[in-house]
Amino acid sequence: MVQPQEDDISVEASSLPPVPIQEISEDRTLTETVLFPTPKLFLKISKPEIRQSLRALTYESVFAAVLYSIIGGALLSNFLLELGAGPVEIGLLAAIPQMVNLLQPLGAYLVNRSTSFRQYFMCIFIPSRLLWLILLPAIWLVTSSRITGYQVVQLTLAILLVANIIEAFGRAPWLGWSAVLVPQRLRGRYFGFRNSILGLTNLVGVPMLGLAVSAWPGGTLQGYGAVLVVGIILGIISVGCQFWMTDINPQILKVGDLDTSHPQPQGIDFSLFKDANFLKFVLYLSIWCFAVNVSAPFFNLYLLPGYRY
Predict the structure, then answer these.
(1) Residue 191: which of 203, 205, 179 has the closest Cα?
(2) How far apart are the first and last CA of the chain?
(3) How confident is the model at residue 249 (pLDDT cuts 50, 70, 90)?
(4) Longest dimension (CA), the chain
(5) Distance between CA atoms of 19 and 33, rounded to whole angstroms?
(6) With contact defined as beta carbons under 8 Å apart, do 243 and 29 qualify?
(7) Under a CB-based contact definition with an 8 Å cutoff, are residues 209 and 70 in contact?
(8) In what side-by-side order are the strands of the sheet with 43-46?
(9) 160-184 per-residue burial string, b: 16 or more CB within 10 A, e: under 16
(10) How far apart are CA 160 and CA 154, in angstroms?
(11) Which of 9, 63, 120, 124 could be 238's S-S partner, Cβ–Cβ 3.0 to 4.6 Å?
(12) What is the pTM assigned to this prediction?
């Protein structure tokens, strides 16, 4: 776990409204950072709390990565292909998570009216992950020939749609909470370490999960159901890791923005569209993402053995 080496740590949130910060001047072993948005409302974050929050954030990401590798990517594609899914269903599988991202601004609006990041994310991630439990009895019914495979395909896509709609409300606020907890001077080092851990988790975890599915005695469908149970359990453990992350009241950040002496722009600032370099970058990124997302989802369609011509 990355531990900060600096004597003083300032909690900053560059992606959120600026917050007045005042450091305690007394000589202490661990310097504390106090946020003073108003005389009556303040939040104290010490070095041990920051270290514990970063450690919990890393564990949370690792457990969540295992779940998302099961309910997305090659494992879910192989499950749908075994049930008889075709190009349309595989296309929907790839399109649904991208389309629901349009709801992220609404999530940022809602979190600004909550009083706790932790409680907000509990209401987001617990229902969205428990929703996948509905798929377990469906797997049992299709393996016992009581329902058709295509019905399970439709149910899976419906669960995917609802779960992603719920999680879309938490994706932008999650970055906001992370930005507050990770000091600005440590962000490059911490997120580089965290991304390396996540890459290693996917590199080791996905092949092992795929092997478990293919080697399951009851067949690949039951094997996917078994690893799905493991994934849901790890997903709930991931949510539980948030109890070790320092909770922040979004209203503190909101009040801090109102108390700042610098006038804040009203509405949406469209001046960035006058920057020619920014427009070129957006155009390049749009073409790149369009090309990748048009072709990449269908690789699994032809590479996985479940596809039937």
Answers:
(1) 179
(2) 48
(3) confident
(4) 73
(5) 12
(6) no
(7) yes
(8) 21-23, 32-35, 43-46
(9) bebbbebbbbbbbbbebbbbbbbbe
(10) 10
(11) 63
(12) 0.76
